């Protein structure tokens, strides 16, 4: 409900604004800025494609798949968990898709 107690319909502008929301998350004492995953992640069939789509949610710093592949796994796990939680999907669900 909105502040006036009236429920409003989504429109393209409000959906775009919602999709562009970001969040700063702390990973091992430093910040990473993330955004919500797009619905297209539900169509990701290959692991490589899913990782690239997950990395699309990293706003700052921009990370390529090649760079991500060289990072420690504990960093990658925390980053994926943060993106999944912010996007309202469970980590188990993200691993299944």
How would you characterize the overall build of this protein?
Helix content is 45%, strand content 15%. A hairpin with a 2-residue loop joins strand 1 and strand 2 (30-35). It has helices spanning 12-19, 47-56, 65-70, 73-86, 91-96; strands spanning 22-27, 30-35, 58-60. It is globular. It has five helices and three strands. The protein has one domain (22-96). By secondary structure, it is an alpha+beta fold. Strands 1-2-3 form a three-stranded antiparallel beta sheet.
Structural class computed from helices and strand pairing: alpha+beta
Helix percentage range = 40-55%
% residues in beta strands: 15-25%
> What is the general shape?
globular
Uncertain ranges: 93-97
N- and C-termini, Cα separation: 32 Å
Q: Helical element count? A: 5
What keywords describe this structure?
97 residues, alpha+beta, three-stranded antiparallel sheet, 3 strands, 45% helix, globular, disordered C terminus
């Amino acid at each position: 409900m909105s502040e006036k107690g009236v429920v409003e319909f989504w429109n393209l502008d409000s959906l775009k604004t919602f999709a562009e929301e970001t969040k700063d998350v702390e990973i091992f004492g430093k910040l990473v800025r993330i955004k919500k995953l797009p619905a297209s992640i539900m169509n990701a069939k290959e692991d490589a494609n899913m990782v690239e789509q997950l990395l699309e949610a990293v706003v700052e710093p921009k990370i390529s798949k090649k760079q991500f592949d060289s990072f420690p796994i504990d960093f990658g796990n925390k980053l994926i968990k943060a993106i999944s939680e912010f996007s309202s999907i469970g980590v188990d669900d993200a691993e299944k898709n």
